[in-house]
Amino acid sequence: FGLTESGSGSDAAAMKTTAVRKGDTYILNGSKRFITNGGLAQVNSVFAMTDPEKGTRGISAFIVQKDFPGFSVGRIEDKMGIKGSQTAELIFEDCEVPATNLLGREGEGFKIAMMTLDRTRPGIAAQAVGIAQGALDLAVDYSKQRIQFDKPIAENQGIQFMLADMATKVEAARLLVYNVAEMIDRGEKHFGKYSAMAKMFASDAAMDVTNDAIQVLGGYGYMKEYPAERMLRDAKITQIYEGTNQIQRLVIARALLTDL
Q1: Could you tell me the CATH number of the domain that includes residue 224?
Q2: What is the reported pLDDT for 244?
Q3: pLDDT of 246 higher than 70
Q4: Final residue of a domain: which of 106, 141, 168?
Q5: Contact, 162 vs 215, CB < 8 A?
Q6: d(CA 256, CA 250)
Q7: Residue-number span of the structural domain to which 78 is assigned
């Protein structure tokens, strides 16, 4: 999903990648940054400006195959988390894309991107729920086994309150994911607000829960011997990709104010 660039993340209209039609071919020039599995995928959906004067209405979407002339993979990012997922730079140098590989019509790229994000944000929310659940399970198990002052720390009210809050956040996030997933399954049209809610809340919950899990584990939580620190590093990206949580709040507010 080739949308983000070095200079355009939340501001898609600032993208510099261009697509110029020449006969039956579009010539793409520019680059994309932070593309998940971009160096592994055989096919990428790529967004480029066909009319820079029109802002987001000048963005078009293309299907770009890995073997197209002028397409190459640049740097592979060294990330703090989700290390099992490759994140790559995509480079287009006079990349030749058949005109038949235009998705929709010229100028519809931004709409296509936003419709795609509405459907993929629940996936990020589900990822966040999974991370948070893992951290909660770890904290619960550890609290039962860790002995301090001749008793398991799980018997301390302070720990119990933390675990209760963690569990409540996980369950609330899970239900938000299930809700929007069911809306999509039913074929409802106006689910963008709920998609943003699920992504925003679940990712914030994942950060809270993983942070609290480390606190429950104490010094052990800070060590790589235990997976809590990895869970926190993995959770952070869920607040950023598929639209930052600040963008999600904008999506939710605008939907509320337009009765969608």
Answers
A1: 1.20.140.10
A2: 96
A3: yes
A4: 106
A5: yes
A6: 10
A7: 12-106
